[in-house]
Amino acid sequence: MTGNSQSELAGISRRSIFRGGATLLGGLGATSLGATASPFRSLPGNGSASANDLANQTQRTLRWVGPAQADWVIPRAGVDHNVVVVGGGQSGVGISYWLARKGVGRVSTIDESEPGKAGVWRTIARMHVLNTSKLQAGPARDDVALGFRAWYEALHGPRAFNAMERVPRLAWADYLDWFQKTASVQVRYRTCLLDVEPDGDVLRLHIESNGVERIETTRKLVLATGYLGSGGPNLPDNIRTLPGHLWAHSSGYIDFPALAGKVVGVLGAGSSAFDAAATALESKAVQVHLFSRRPDIEYTGNPSSAPSALNASYHSPGPLDLAGYLPDGVRWNNERVRNRASASVTLPAIERVVGSDRFYLHVNSPWDSTAVADDGKVAVKTPTNSFHFDYVIAGTGYRTDMSLRKELARIHGTILLWGEHYRAAPGEENPAAKTYPYLGEGFQFQAREGTDANYLRNIHCFNPAGLLSFESQVGNIGSSVYYPALVDAIARDLYLEGIDPSASKQLLAAPPQVSSDPSVYRRAIR
Question: What are the pLDDT digits (tens) for 349-395?
């Protein structure tokens, strides 16, 4: 490391720059990294008795919920599926379940990952506890008998749930496994969508499954593909051009045990950056330096702080599922506010790192340049200092851009974008928002003017690309509130497709062909 000695770096305040720093300092305790590596490695009460309680409760729940509706969708000749859901994480499983409850049959759910690794909770999510409330509805929505609380209390008891401040990440992962099994949602793993080829209003899906490519057809397609499904990682060029063995984005696999004894640099100040920094520290990195381009860190969970512009703008007043009905100009300008605000991180994520003397926070410190030094390390220059790192991690978020998705390469040019649909007034331009797709009320893509792409109404985008259209990070836990809008839109289209309007008119206009026999009721006439 150059430009600063160890003693000089130790003088950088890791606490005072946080808004509400007094509350933060007073709150550090057993959850800080200095006290314990992870307080949630295991959960109590998982013995045979509690497992039996859960099994009995699950059987009762299945009786109460009752069977799903019979499949009422009229089959379409020559088409393999009514719906293909891409993504076997919490959204994909939840959507598939509620489609079945609606009576929509022939739904196939696919995921490119190995069994047990779909979604983020056992892979790239690195927080100890969830960022959302423990009362937040998940894929079960308002069916509380299948909700997280019912599951957790069956295993650990009501007192344990009441005492829990936030849901442990791995407990949530275990719950989702149970929900998928209980909901009988079958996922085809090791199955990747390569290309979407329109054929009239039917979609020909080029799929690779267990290394074998084939084509399957579907009437509806749901992209429940998470953050990466909205485009890809947002990578600064000065990191992208480094040799691959020296860096990673927080959205990908990182060999954290290999960072033991290393000096690590983390660029970014959001939750994923702080979680990556904490995991590196817990993996025995000798130093971890986190860099923010802003002068302070905006964080949630401090009761003495006023709500930030970022958090206030994420949800408009009123029910979240109504925010998508706001005028275009309101949604556009809310996104401008979000872009101007600093990245938000939770208080537990901050507490997890600031208790360690091996953690160094650098504010007002964008990376002006990076290079590979003579010693093979990454040389980083900020406006005021220079550093050498054994490894760097980009916690720089994600980029929404449909053109980056290989499975949409054939059709992305026909998708209507916000930048084409909405003409911003002078001074209200927002280049980052221009690439968001302009989605319909059922999360369906819409066609650009002048294109013959009516098939886009059959592709429903349920991932963070829907942020601008729905005022929410679509695909997270809270977005289960949108399942009804999505499921109803799919069911409505499939229902109406099976009706012949001319035949229906003739049926309603035609008189009865045979009169009813009055003998069955004549004796009751007085």
Answer: 999 999 999 999 999 999 999 999 999 999 999 999 999 999 999 99
Classified by CATH at the fold level, domain 6-30+235-297+342-396 comes out as FAD/NAD(P)-binding domain (3.50.50)
What is the tens place of the pLDDT at every residue in 29-58? Answer: 333 343 333 333 344 455 567 888 888 888
* 437 in Cβ contact with 415 (< 8 Å): yes
CB 99 within 8 A of CB 490: yes
Residue 452: what residue type?
D
User: Where in the sequence of the chain do the CATH 3.50.50.60 domains occur?
Assistant: 6-30+235-297+342-396, 48-230+400-497
Angstrom distance (rounded) from CA 93 to CA 86: 10
Q: Is 12 exposed, middle or buried (0-12, 13-18, 19+ CB in 10 A)?
A: middle
Please give the backbone phi and psi of residue 300, each rounded to the nearest 5 degrees, phi first.
-105, 160
Query: Which position has the token pair 């890791």?
Result: 14
Paired tokens of 142: 């308002």
Output the pTM of the full model. Answer: 0.82
Token duo for residue 319: 């029910």
CATH assignment, 48-230+400-497: 3.50.50.60
Stretch (H or E) spanning 70: none
